[in-house]
Amino acid sequence: MKVHADVDAGSGYVHTITGTSANMHDVSETANLIREDDEAVYGDSGYHGAVNQPAIKKVVYRGIAKNMHRFHMLFASANLIMCSRAGRTRDFIGCTV
């Protein structure tokens, strides 16, 4: 499985994530990550040689849908921590989904 994330360059908050099978190329998800109001898009050239790194471990595979629930919680938590550390807790007061 692969998780593709789009991060706001200004705030550093993750605003969009998608999940695909591991054999999908990153380019295939680009259109699903870019928002209409994005003025610039930054990306890397991929993860050349990542499979040769001993630190790379496989995710616990429970299906893409279940893993995506875990990743949504993970990235939302990271956003909340970054927001709190920046003293911007008012951003989340009264937030509705």
Set down the secondary structure blueprint.
Blueprint: E1 2-7, E2 14-20, H1 30-33, H2 64-85
Antiparallel strand pairs: 1-2
Description:
With 97 residues, the protein is α+β, with helices and mostly antiparallel strands. The chain contains 2 helices and 2 strands; from the N terminus they run E-E-H-H. The chain has helices at 30-33, 64-85; strands at residues 2-7, 14-20. It has a two-stranded antiparallel ribbon with strand order 1-2. A hairpin with a 6-residue loop joins strand 1 (2-7) and strand 2 (14-20). The longest helix has 22 residues, at 64-85. The chain starts with a strand and ends in a 12-residue tail after the last helix. The model is unreliable at 47-51 (pLDDT under 50).
Task: List descriptors.
two-stranded antiparallel ribbon, 97 residues, alpha+beta, 27% helix, 2 strands
Short recap of the structure:
Helix content is 27%, strand content 13%. With 97 residues, the chain is of the alpha+beta class.
Shape: globular
* Rounded mean pLDDT score: 75
Radius of gyration: 15 Å
Number of strands: 2
Q: What percent strand?
A: 5-15%
Low-confidence stretches: 47-51
Distance between the termini: 26 Å
* Estimated structural class: alpha+beta
Question: H/E series, N to C?
Answer: EEHH
For the biggest sheet, the summary is: 2 strands, antiparallel
Please state the oligomeric state of the protein chains shown. single chain
The number of helices is 2
What level of helicity do the residues show? 25-40%
User: Major sheet: order of its strands?
Assistant: 1-2
